Amino acid sequence: MKRKPSVSHDEAIIRRLRKGSEFAVEYMRAALEEGDEEEDGAQVLLIALRQLAQAQDIAKVAKAAGIERESLYRALSGRGNPRLSTLFAVTKAIGLRLTVEEVS
To answer: Full-prediction pTM beyond 0.85?
Structure first.
């Protein structure tokens, strides 16, 4: 029996993100919530943003955000440390907005 070739977790997430914005919104919410609860929470957020950018063609996202593609990859890597202006530009380029809400 032939087995289907497996895909990485990242590729599976990127494929799912390409299918609709509703999943993208929930995925970012989950990344923000998880990131808020963990020490390395910033990494969780950056990886989620990178996957969203890749799902929408990272070169197009970089151009829309006014950032060089290579710089965007670096900023959204697990060790990235992007400026707040970069985060706002990228989220706007992918059609999302970061918001704040009161913690109860």
So the answer is: no
